[in-house]
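Memo to structure team: turn this sequence into structure tokens by end of day. - J.P.
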Amino acid sequence: MITVLIHILNEETILGDIDEMPNPNDTILLVKNPRRKDGKDLPYLSEGVDKVFWPMNRLAYVEIVPSKEEEHIIGFVRD
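Reply from structure team:
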């Protein structure tokens, strides 16, 4: 599961999970467990909704949130 920040045009940023990275020819993005960045429910979704399709043409961009394991990896360090 990949956690992502989804920046929708003219709307608030959404935090969610996707199974795999979208392909360049995909027209929709399936997001599981969509929520606000603070973890609260999205007010415009019905109660109990845990999967949403967003059309790619409504997305400005998608950020990939590093996992806990990736945060502990030490990259290039300059002395």
